Amino acid sequence: MKKILLLQPSPYDQNRLPLKKKKLYFAGLALPLLAALTPKDYEVEIIFEILEEIPFETDAELIGISSMGHGVIRSIDIAMEFRKRGKTVILGGYMASIMAEEAQKYCDALLIGDAELVWEELLRDYEFGTLKPVYENRLNQGWFSTPPPRFDLITNKKLGDFLPVQAGRGCPHSCSFCSVACLYEGCYIKKPIEEVVRDIKQIKALGYKKFLLLDDNIFSDKVYLRQLVEEIKALGMEWMSQCDIRIGREHILLELLRDSGCTTLSFGLESLQRESLKGMNKAWANPDDYPSLIRNIQDHGIDVSTEMVVGGEADTLESIKATKDFIEDNKISVPRFYILTPIPGTRFFKDIEAQGRLVKTDIYSFDGTEAVYTIPTMTPDELTKAYWQLYESLFTLKSIAKRNIFRKEFFKAPGKYLFYVGVNLYYRHQIKQGVIPNIF
Ligand code: B12
Description:
Blueprint (H helix, E strand, L loop, with lengths): L1 E7 L21 H8 L4 E7 L13 E4 L6 H13 L3 E4 L2 H5 L1 H4 L5 E5 L5 H9 L6 E4 L24 E4 L2 E3 L8 H6 L3 E3 L2 H13 L4 E4 L8 H12 L4 E5 L8 H9 L2 E9 L3 H6 L10 H10 L3 E8 L6 H13 L5 E5 L7 H8 L25 H15 L2 H8 L9 H19 L8
Parallel strand pairs: 1-2, 1-3, 3-4, 4-5, 5-6, 7-10, 10-11, 11-12, 12-13, 13-14
Antiparallel strand pairs: 8-9
Helix pairs in contact: 7-8, 8-9, 12-14, 15-16
Bound molecules: cobalamin.
The site of cobalamin has 41 residues, from helix 1, strand 3, helix 3 and helix 6.
């Protein structure tokens, strides 16, 4: 039987060693889905490098490697090693797709965009000796369909207590820094609801009680979301997802979400500065509304988690400091921050490069913890320092308690908030070591 090895590489750590974890909480869907799209006459093995070693001595003839952000460097290093060993290497995933010209140099075939409609063709071409250097397919209209993901290939690994589900891809917004906007260009595509329900039922049948709806923005199509949550409710599962903060205006929808088992929503708020948001092509978000929208969502029993960036055009040392008060006042259990980073391939990168503002070119500096371009209000070093200070100020024991224990919801679900305290303490430990906090 022919064999294919599918790899999700781990990004390098500060010592340039692949990052390792005991457990992977956020398992991605790409590889289980790619395995499901692979014709049955192939044996498929999946490796998450964060948990296990790359089997360079494999008897697989084909190696498929995924890529994400700055982690693409590890993907390329692995690709080169396998090619040295005479294997046929295929690269895919977000980062290889948006830096296609560069990625092509390191593989036998590159798949740009979504695999669904071209993966089988690529494998057949390989068998007939007619593999092309590039396969491209961007699903960007209406509906898309997938087989059920091959979770049987990953559930023996050390994963968290939930598995991923996807209902839609893309997002109707076109924020200039966003890789999703770069690939889907403001389009939102969705799966038929029966297929999403089928995938959730599969997860439930495997004994899981929770799933992560890893869509980019579940608030892209209200009618669809409403129908979807009505179906999810009947399944008796808990779930988490992410979306546009303006869902906070939708009382009925929020009730439906809560009743369907939605426990946490994550929001890319980015900045409290209107001018900075404007500079990111995100002027549709109004920071003055953030507190009331957050309160509304929390009042519906849904936890709010936030992702923000510092280093927008109008950010100052004072505005970065003020972000601390915002996070504490709004009782954000687990806040996450990045330095606004122009990812190669995005519109933002093109603009910053054209303006001659890049101060770093090594893509490993592009992990969101180091300032890589200049802004009018401070030097890159000042920005990097202010970023880490913001993290330190929010991960003191006092702030952790303020955001998680001294809040009115605490006694309704003490177990949940104590779990968040645990996550905060883990983040605190990582911040102290200068490591980007995450619970991979
Ligand atoms: C889950 C997830 C993770 C998990 C990954 C778990 C794992 N081991 O698989 C965790 C939390 C660890 C993670 C980490 C990171 N992530 Co991440 N992640 C995601 C998320 C939310 C979902 C990924 C997913 O499963 N999508 C669903 C699948 C079906 O879609 P897909 O991945 O695009 O795959 C399709 C195609 O791309 C293609 N494809 C994908 N891989 C391959 C491989 C081959 C060989 C082929 C042929 C095709 C192919 O086929 C699939 C089906 O069509 C995405 C957001 C998103 N919209 O995808 C971000 C996302 C991919 N991550 C991103 C980033 C930046 C990171 C980090 C760099 C963050 C950081 N600063 O540390 C790290 C890098 C980790 C690494 N391994 O290198 C960015 C990537 C941007 C970019 N330009 O590359 C995204 C898009 C988030 C965002 N909005 O910016 N991530």
